[in-house]
């Protein structure tokens, strides 16, 4: 029996733990640096069909329909004139067993954790050192305890310190020169949109997304705004919880977003967006990096959670087939999604009126072009 240590109890770490439990060849343990798994309530995530098919392998289809939602389209709007530009039929990528899904992050994390026995979870375990003893990997924690394992899976997020220990240099994600503001809102407070779809509104250096997260009239709202911050501001973690700073962001957003939406937002949080700049591969073939620790994408294809699930499944299949490595296809796919996400971000934030007209005209044509959609979007939403 091979011992596998999973560092990090987020979506990717919990998902691969569920998969590995199905295989009696592995003994697994999860080590979380915090004193609990992050059950942050309210806020939503989107899961495209590629990840739903993989989640269904561990029973995700049994989650109550009241706690998730299946949008049919992405409706594109202009923030300037509030008019609809076009829509993209994402239900075209659905099949009878898997559909594009929106839900609370809390619902997904609860589902993944509740299927694991409590004894697998180890809290307050901050990794400080990695040693090698023959074929064994020794993980040393802050409280001077340690464990030995045959395989080490690093899934502790975009700010992974364990990854830096493995690569043997301090690795920092890149600030994407953007601020996200998110909150929850009741459906009745959002006017002029189809409540059964995802609404994506494009503005000047700003875009917003709102979508239902369940069948209880609750919506998730997120605004992504270009904003330069100084090094000192980025290092001041308390800044993004500061009431005056959040009010200043709301004030900037309100210049383009419907004031009724701003007024009715609840549970508001603000945070800087960080992305990965490079894919790092450990030289030790028994160590793997997954989730946001592997690569964090710009937030335009809603692929953060989906890719965390996808890369975890690929690692599971590699271990099952006794391949101590990721395929080159995983790296190619990651780079492809990253390129398209950055291009989308650029087009969503255009300010020049002529370029806006060109973009909107092209979008109206391209969303109806099946060949383009299957190539540009289908290659991401299907694995």
Describe, in plain words, how this protein is organized in 3D.
- The chain is an alpha/beta fold.
- The protein is built from 13 helices and 18 strands.
- It has a seven-stranded mixed sheet, sandwiched between helices. Strands 8-2-1-12-18 form a five-stranded parallel sheet.
- Helix 1 runs parallel beside helix 3, helix 1 packs parallel to helix 9 and helix 2 crosses helix 9.
Question: What would the keywords be for this entry?
Answer:
single chain, 383 residues, alpha/beta, seven-stranded mixed β-sheet, five-stranded parallel β-sheet, 13 helices, 18 strands, 32% helix
Short description:
About 30% of the residues lie in helices and about 25% in strands. The chain has helices at about 10-20, 50-55, 105-115, 160-165, 230-235, 245-255, 260-265, 290-295, 305-320, 330-350, 355-365, 370-375, 380, and strands at about 1-5, 25-30, 45, 70, 75-80, 85-90, 100-105, 120, 125-135, 135-140, 145-150, 150-155, 175-185, 200-205, 205-210, 220-225, 265-275, 285-290.
Strand content: 25-35%
Computed over alpha carbons, the radius of gyration is 21 Å
Oligomer: single chain
Number of beta-strand segments = 18
Widest sheet: strand ordering? 6-5-14-15-16-13-17
